[in-house]
Amino acid sequence: MSNIANGDAQPPAIFDALPYYDDELEKYPVLKQKVEKELAREGKPPQSLHPKVPPAPTLFADHPLLQAELERVSNHQPLPPLDTARYQLPGPVKPEDEEEWLEALKNARAQLEHQKLRQTNLALLQQYGPNAWRIHNYLNEASAKNVEKALEDLKNLTVDVNRERKNFQTRLGTQLTSLETRWTELISSILQIEMANVALEVEIDRLNKREVELAAAL
What we know:
Layout: H1 2-5, H2 24-27, H3 29-42, H4 64-74, H5 98-217
């Protein structure tokens, strides 16, 4: 009542097809051929999306590195090779050049610090990694179970919707068939009445003519 009072009344639904009930295409192959020919003549549907469909969001608009990586993966491009020169310990090309020795010494110290950091990370991983991995697996399993449950619920909902739709259409189809049968019976009755009226009119005309002839004979 509130929707009607507010002017939000929805128009009645019109059902022009009952796919769960109508079986004319299976009964009459000629109709199916005509439908297929008509569909082939109409051509393919437009590839463009409906105007009300929002545009696709731009991923990682504020992160150029992530956007470039996403584009690389989308284009099926391989990863760029790792720069292994930074992990090498080349000696000076000119042994007499003090600057080259200083650069080599700086590189060696950086490599030493890198190896120390790797040892620290490996020790931390050995100490805390197993538990962190178990927790990660537990969270993944929980997420997978939630997704599977959501999928199962969606499938059940789809089955319920299709079952309700089939029952609704079957009920409407039965009602329409009954009304069509009743309509056919009424049309047949009307035709019979009209034929009887025509016969009565002919009989009345004959009797009137007979009456006139008898009156003239007297």
